[in-house]
Amino acid sequence: MSGGFRSRAAGRRQTATQQRRAVDAPKSAAGRGEVREKRASIGDPAREVAWEVLYRVAEDNAFANLVLPKLLRERRIKGRDAAFATELTYGALRSLGVLDAVIADCSSRPLDRIAPEVLAALRLGTYQLLYTRVEPHAAVDTSVSLVEAAGQPKATGFANGILRTISRTPAQQWMDRLAPAEPLANLAFRTAHPEWIARSFARVLGEGELEHALAADSERPIVHLVARPGEISAEELALITGGEEGRYSPYAVYLPEGDPGQLEPVCDGLAAVQDEGSQLIARAAATVPVEDDRGRWLDLCAGPGGKAALMGSLAAIDGAHVDAIEISEHRAELIRKAVRGLPVTVRTADGRDPGLEPGYDRVLVDAPCSGLGALRRRPEARWTKSEGDIAGLNTLQSELLASAIRMAKPGGVIVYSTCSPDARETREIVDAALSAGGVEELDARQFVGGMDNVGAGPAVQMWPHRHGTDAMFLAVLRKIG
After folding, report:
1. How far, in Å, CA of 468 to CA of 424, rounded?
2. What are the start-end ranges of the E strands in 333-429?
3. Which of 239, 243, 307, 346 registers the highest number of CB atoms within 10 A of its CB?
4. What contacts 383, CB < 8 A, 6 or more positions away?
């Protein structure tokens, strides 16, 4: 995957000595597998873990937000070392496009011809040189040591030459030198985003607010907890955890720091980690007024189960029942764990044809999407996603919404949501459903707990820089009887 991060600067020349000492990337999957089993050990646990996560993300398509906490626990890295490892890992992944442009400008060969373990060390070192206060000699020396410890001793001179070249030019000069001239592309580069994502956001926000939105993607989000209705109140959860009650969801608690998995209410199933925007969507699905609600509720795309669990908690209070549909058996098992003890039946099926009797009072379609609204939580995602993915998702999103409308009873409510602000996945999908007939759109703004500045309506678009939530989209439809 490392070739996917190549910039237009790839291929510029370095010294002949550095050319001779560079090491090609492994040519076979077997070679990559052999390297993957090695651990780069230099007596610096924070940098070792950061290097390993960067390597796994590039070579194995791993999720950093899953791999990093696991490695920190396994190696018992805590305190300042854990904080440093987290900063290096997430910072480097967020900035990959910039880092690769700088590395490529100094390299004698394209990035996809640099061994992946060497490239991971170069990215780690370049991030420290451009974005942190780490002394240049420490950033260079430790990165070169990682190259050698990873089994690439012949590449140490190559890595040393690149990093020392980078260190001789201030970060701002690198930005000025490599940033495109066109204004929006320039802003995308300086905020470490692919240009297509910046353009996607600009179509919804306008360019005046764009820089704030892009900058918010690089801010580490605080943890949002959800207090399970009927089990514990947000006020009680805040007192127990030392957190702060949320602004919009009546179940939300903000936790500025700490490991939520170690909290007693979370361990006991009284609370869980859930973005406040997701809480508002699940709550809307359960509380939008429906005439003659007989308690048949449906979550059509329920994995991994957060919204299904909140709907299930509210269903338990109202005497209702939720059918939760998930096409993946693995994710269906995650839902079962999340909804244990709640009036929720998990079914493994395709939401486009779930095989259930129509006539549901409430249907939630939290559709699979690009995830552009959660880039804060998946720092590498902005560089692994492609604009070409959206067209295929649009077809699926439209089919799922059409299925939800079929499954709803006349007068029933359909809530459509995505964790993306891209208009192709949000407004355009809803408009197509409205054009097909059979549904009308309600004003969703009245169902988000007093949240303002959510767009012109009737749908709601949340933003990290405005609301502190993921960039969730919410539309509410009613089936015409």
Report:
1. 23
2. 344-348, 360-366, 408-418
3. 307
4. 4, 5, 93, 96, 97, 194
* Catalytic residue chosen out of the listed positions 106, 301, 369, 419: 419
pLDDT band of residue 400 (cuts 50, 70, 90) is: very high
Q: pLDDT at position 258, please?
A: 77
Calpha distance 209→337 (Å, rounded): 40
- Non-local CB neighbours of 82 within 8 Å, separated by 6+ positions: 46, 72
Active site residue 369: no
Output the six-digit token pair for 360. 């549901």
Residues 6 or more apart whose Cβ sits within 8 Å of residue 341: 269
Q: Give me the residues paired with residue 321 across strands.
A: 296
Tell me the pLDDT tens digit for each residue of 356-390.
999 999 999 999 999 999 999 998 999 999 999 99
Residues 6+ apart with CB under 8 A from 158: 18, 21, 22, 23, 108, 118
Give the helix/strand (H/E) hosting 245. Answer: strand 244-245
- Identify how many contiguous H helices and E strands the chain contains and give both numbers: 22, 12
Distance CA 24, CA 310 (A): 51
CB atoms within 10 A of CB 315: 23
Question: Which residues have C-beta within 8 Å of that of residue 479, sequence separation ≥ 6?
Answer: 405, 408, 409, 410, 411, 412, 413, 414, 438, 439
Helices in 37-153 by DSSP H: which ranges? Answer: 45-60, 64-74, 79-94, 96-106, 116-131, 136-149
**Res 19 pLDDT > 90:** no
Q: Whole-number mean pLDDT of the chain?
A: 91
Residues in the chain: 481
Indicate if the pLDDT at residue 213 is higher than 90. Answer: yes
Tokens 């259930």 -> residue: 356
pLDDT digits (tens, 9 = 90+) for 96-117: 999 999 999 999 999 999 999 9
Rounded distance between C-alpha atoms, residue 374 and residue 371, angstroms: 6
309's enclosing H/E stretch is helix 306-318
